[in-house]
Specification:
With 72 residues, this protein is mostly beta strands. The protein has no helices and five strands.
Length: 72
Amino acid sequence: MEDASLVGLMGRVTGTVGPGLVGEVIVRVRGGAEHFLAYPANGTGRIPPGTVVMVVEHLPPRTVYVTEAYDG
């Protein structure tokens, strides 16, 4: 299922993600890198540009919900 294929992928924030904002992330998918509109998965907090995030939900065609990816 194509929609599920984005879930769990890592991306990088290119435009601040946060409540009341339409952020942007770039995700490596389908042999390239694509931009998606992004919202915080928890609905709160800002995620600044440059932050590595993980896709937790994909709403076709170009919207994702993301959470910060943590090491460890």
